[in-house]
Design goal:
Layout (H helix, E strand, L loop, with lengths): L1 H21 L1 H15 L4 H5 L8 H7 L5 H12 L13 E5 L8 E5 L1 H22 L9 E4 L4 E3 L5 E3 L1 H8 L2 H4 L2 E2 L2 H4 L4 H12 L4 E6 L1 H15 L4 H4 L5 E4 L5 H11 L5 E8 L2 E5 L10 E3 L5 E7 L21 E8 L6 E12 L2 E8 L3 E2 L6 E2 H15 L2 E10 L8 E10 L4 H15 L1 H7 L9 E4 L4 H8 L17 H7 L3
Parallel strand pairs: 1-5, 3-6, 3-7, 7-8, 8-9, 19-20
Antiparallel strand pairs: 1-2, 4-5, 9-10, 10-11, 11-15, 12-13, 13-14, 14-15, 16-17, 18-19
Helix pairs in contact: 1-6, 10-11, 11-13, 14-15, 15-16
Length: 500
């Protein structure tokens, strides 16, 4: 009976999500005013004279875009217990992120307002979407399985840990009662030991849904299958029906999840839920749908900078009503945790304006531009997906770096690949990858013309487990960490090569 009541509540709640999406522009226009008003008396608000900000233009002229380094001193003061720095009051929770291009940790403030009005509100929308669009199913017929990271508590009573652990510590009781594993097991610091213990604990449980980063969940689920002896997960868990994922491009993992889940209908639901905020949810549940619904009434104000203008002295800062389809934008956010015009580092593209839907296209720093080819992460992900589908192979992890120009001015891209299933012919794989990239990116095609400067990509294969070993060596084991995909230096490639 309780499961039916929960399902009815969330199915009915879907109208709230639809109303918020229809009022996206108005919500955004009101939000920046609310943020400025609330934070007037903070140190940041006094520094940038929030009391004198009366228009969005004032807001943008008063506050320059902020990198993490710009806010770092203030954030560290907040971690030490100082109040009213970037946001009113004392912030007790910080999400720790090592980033993806260096081992240096970032600490993202998460206020109570942000937890309630952003992360948890987005979570409710996520379940509402699924409940409404799967009327014949009930995700509350079993428990949710989510693997979280760990956290530390300092002398000021401030908690610092993975976003997943921050959320876990603040979940309402009704959610805690409907999830596995137990908190004590979830927050164990040793991931390999934790995965092993969790896989044993959940074999005999009734699991209906899964959430979290694909890589670690795949390891966990494979252990469950091995220990249980079941043919697939739906044989073990008959109510298993939903996986809510995010953090990395899912397509390289989709086939592997499909193979171990089972033959019955199953939903993969994508989210854009970062340490800095919950930004978007897939609201069209068919496999071929493109784009996630941008959450515009969830305490995050968005600005969009055309990618080709990024780095210029006076780029355009666009509001939601100004964006266009098909354009790559650098994303800036202002939040109820005190991130002001914050450069999150992601690039997005709109696939729909009615309602607003986006896809992630990469990272500002995740591209290769050796000769003006402007190869971005989205190109690489799509190309690998197409090539692997055509050649019936699959890739676990990859990274791409440059082979710098030689004395004749010739250079190339090196693709370091860890395969789960090898192609029959690596030469064919490399040629098809090259041609697919040409089809996807006109700049790449132009720079590859005639092999004058940019040569064909070099495909290098590493043994199984190499990328995991590199993550461990960098202290990046856990659900919040992932392998950088594209970079303009050979630093990561050489580090991984040195481990072989």
């Amino acid at each position: 009976m309780q499961a039916q009541i929960f399902n009815w509540i969330f199915k009915s709640r879907y109208v709230i999500f639809e109303r918020n999406q229809a009022q996206a522009i108005v919500s955004q226009q009101n939000l920046w005013r609310e943020l400025v008003h609330i934070a007037q008396a903070t140190e940041f608000g006094r520094k940038y004279a929030f009391k004198d900000i009366h228009s969005l233009k004032d807001f943008q002229q008063a506050i320059p875009p902020q990198s993490y380094e710009d806010l770092q001193v203030s954030i560290l003061e907040m971690i030490d217990g100082r109040a009213n720095v970037l946001w009113p009051g004392k912030i007790r929770f910080f999400a720790k992120s090592s980033g993806t291009s260096s081992s240096k940790s970032k600490f993202i403030p998460i206020s109570k307002s942000s937890l309630e009005q952003n992360h948890f509100k987005g979570g409710k929308d996520m379940i509402s979407i699924y409940a409404r669009k799967n009327a014949h199913k009930n995700v509350f017929s079993g428990k949710n399985l989510s693997v979280s990271g760990t956290f530390d508590k300092n002398s000021s009573g401030v908690m610092v840990g993975d976003l997943s652990s921050v959320l876990l510590l603040n979940l309402p009781a009704w959610v805690q009662n409907n999830r596995l594993p137990a908190i004590e097991l979830s927050i164990l610091p040793d991931w390999e030991s934790k995965i092993n213990q969790i896989s044993t604990e959940i074999i005999d449980q009734n699991i209906s849904s899964l959430s979290g980063v694909p890589s670690w969940n795949l390891i966990l689920l494979k252990q469950v299958l091995h220990k249980s002896g079941a043919a697939n997960l739906q044989e073990l868990w008959p109510n298993f029906q939903l996986y809510m994922h995010g953090g990395v491009n899912f397509e390289p993992y989709r086939k592997r999840f499909e193979d171990i889940i089972g033959p019955k209908s199953f939903t993969f639901l994508e989210t854009y839920n970062a340490s800095e905020g919950f930004f978007a949810i897939q609201d069209q549940l068919d496999k071929d749908s493109k784009g996630m619904a941008l959450l515009c009434n969830h305490g995050v104000f968005y600005e969009f900078v055309p990618k080709e203008e990024w780095g210029k002295t006076n780029p355009s800062y666009l509001s939601l009503q100004d964006v266009q389809l098909g354009q790559n934008y650098v994303l800036l956010i202002s939040t109820k945790s005190g991130l002001w015009r914050y450069i999150i580092g992601d690039t997005v593209r709109f696939t729909s304006l009615h309602p607003f839907r986006i896809v992630l296209t990469g990272r500002i720093q995740y591209f290769i531009n050796l000769f003006g080819e402007e190869l971005v992460e989205e190109n690489a992900n799509i190309a690998l997906q197409k090539v692997c589908s055509q050649l019936q192979c699959s890739i676990k992890e990859y990274t791409v770096g440059p082979i710098y120009p030689d004395a004749n001015g010739k250079g190339a891209h090196e693709w370091l690949l860890e395969f789960e299933k090898f192609p029959d012919d690596f030469t064919v794989f490399g040629k098809l990858l090259d041609q697919t990239l040409k089809n996807l990116n006109s700049d790449y095609e132009a720079k590859r013309s005639g092999n004058i400067a940019l040569q064909a990509p070099i495909v290098s294969v590493v043994p199984n487990g190499t990328f995991l070993a590199w993550l461990k060596a960098k202290g990046k084991v856990g659900g919040q960490h992932k392998v950088p995909r594209l970079q303009n230096s050979r630093k990561i490639i050489e580090e991984i090569r040195a481990m072989r």
